[in-house]
UniProtKB/TrEMBL annotation:
Pfam families: Glyco_hydro_1 (PF00232). InterPro entries: GH (IPR017853), Glyco_hydro_1 (IPR001360). It comes from the Eukaryota. One of its GO terms (molecular function) is beta-glucosidase activity. Belongs to the glycosyl hydrolase 1 family. It comes from Vigna angularis var. angularis. One of its GO terms (biological process) is carbohydrate metabolic process. PANTHER family: GLYCOSYL HYDROLASE, MYROSINASE 3-RELATED. The keyword Cell membrane does not apply. This is Beta-glucosidase. Keywords: Glycosidase, Hydrolase. The keyword Hydrolase applies.
Length: 188
């Protein structure tokens, strides 16, 4: 990356690599923390800014099995705890955070048409789906995603903002965008 003159690198911190059962009560995997510390330190040593994504569709299976993952408001506390662990371990060096990668894509493809994990949808949308409600679940998931984003930002601002008084950290949820062009623009 350094030889390519890259000045930043966006990567995922795997939730289940940090919290193997998805919850703080199950313990923190120090080997996972060490791994990402090494990645971040190596990036910085080479003049490359780390941009960390906390969730890129890799929900710990235990949370899906226990309460349906993003279908349940219980996800908010577990995501907040996971984010808190990451901010504490890496926040002194990471200044750019992406809480959720493409939340719309995750909610639509996972809960409306069933083409991505967890593969939920109504049978009238996709006959291969084994469960779900395409008319309500994408909205429930989207709502809970917004609440998890807000909870993560809130915990950062209340507990860790002091570390970055001079260079404030940036937060966002990554969006899957489509450029819009007029028909006239396309044909000229």
């Amino acid at each position: 990356m350094k030889n390519m003159n890259l000045d930043s690198y966006r990567f995922l911190i795997s939730w289940s690599r940090i919290l193997p059962n998805g919850k703080l009560s199950g313990g923190i995997n120090q080997e996972g923390i060490d791994y990402y510390n090494n990645v971040i330190n190596e990036l910085l040593a080479n003049g490359i800014k780390p941009l960390v994504t906390l969730f890129h569709w890799d929900l710990p299976q235990t949370l899906e099995d226990e309460y349906g993952g993003f279908l349940s408001p219980l996800i908010i506390k577990d995501f907040r705890d996971y984010a808190d662990v990451c901010f504490k371990a890496f926040g002194d060096r990471v200044k750019h955070w992406v809480t959720l990668n493409e939340p719309w894509t995750y909610s639509i493809n996972g809960y409306a048409n069933g083409t991505m994990a967890p593969g939920r949808c109504s049978s009238w949308v996709n006959p291969n789906c084994v469960g779900g409600d395409s008319g309500t679940e994408p909205y429930i998931v989207s709502h809970n995603q917004l609440l998890t984003h807000a909870a993560a930002v809130r915990v950062y601002k209340t507990k860790y903002q002091v570390y970055t008084l001079l260079s404030r950290s940036k937060f966002n949820a990554s969006c899957h965008s489509f450029p819009s062009f007029s028909v006239q623009h396309l044909w000229t």
